[in-house]
Amino acid sequence: MIKKRILVVDDEEDIIKLIKNVLERANYTVLYEYGSETALQRVTAHPPDLIILDLNLPGIGGMELCRIIKNTPATRHIPILMLSMKSAMEDKIAGLKFGADDYMTKPFHSGELLARVEAILRRSKKTEEHEPVVTDGKITVDLDSRIVQIKGKKIELRPKEFDLLVLLMKQKGRVLNRVYIMESILGREYFGNYRVIDAHVKNLRKQMGSESVRIKTIKDIGYLFE
Question: Are strands 5-9 and 50-54 parallel, antiparallel or unpaired?
Fold first, then answer.
């Protein structure tokens, strides 16, 4: 199963460590940035499943970053949980008006954090259009039964290779770097061991036969599905 990727944007290292510990124990992949500019670059390049965003960031503030993300077509679907030391109702209302999906005041209990994250992701899943089948030309993938057919013929894939194919197909035409692929299908416990990704790609190509040419290697970066 592909792990949900959560991006934490906060300039307080202790807060980031706390959130990482809580969410990684719950089997989420946690990424983090200390500033708005680098966070925006990451969100644009590889959109996460959820953003936990501090209101009081240096440079571009949390409110403005939230507004930018929610007003950009490619990222507006990403749910945002806003954090702040401010508990005033006006600040909560402002955050929600700028597009935040929920608002939590610091300090917070780890149980509350996890409960809010899971609730947001549940709501997000319900609002997504159900897509039981992914198809592209001669390749058909049934997400419910996890059956893959190429030219009408069923092929056998290992779980991680199935997840890899779905990831590539859903982002057709986009170069995916090895770090992103690793975080999405393996988790950070494999971080740095990029040969694992290359091995999964090699095995996937073997099973795909003539359609394997659609997975392109982008030298020193990663892979692209055409």
Answer: parallel
- Cα three-residue angle 162-163-167, rounded to 5 degrees: 120
Q: Which of 134, 143, 141 lies closest to 208, judged by CA?
A: 141
Closest CA to 75 of 29, 121, 43: 43
Indicate which CATH number applies to the domain containing 41: 3.40.50.2300
What is the rounded distance in angstroms from the CA atom of residue 154 to the CA atom of residue 138?
12
Q: Do 73 and 156 lie in a common domain?
A: no
Q: Under 8 Å CB-to-CB from 135, ≥6 apart: which residues?
A: 141
Q: What is the pLDDT of residues 182-224, one digit of tens each?
A: 877 876 555 567 788 899 999 999 999 999 999 999 988 899 9
Phi–psi pair at 89, nearest 5 degrees: -60, -35
Q: Are residues 122 and 146 in the same domain?
A: no
Domain boundary among 127, 144, 169: 127
Long-range CB contacts for residues 57-61, cutoff 8 Å, separation at least 24: 57/9, 57/10, 57/11, 58/11, 59/35, 60/36, 61/36
| DSSP secondary structure code for residue 4 in this structure | P
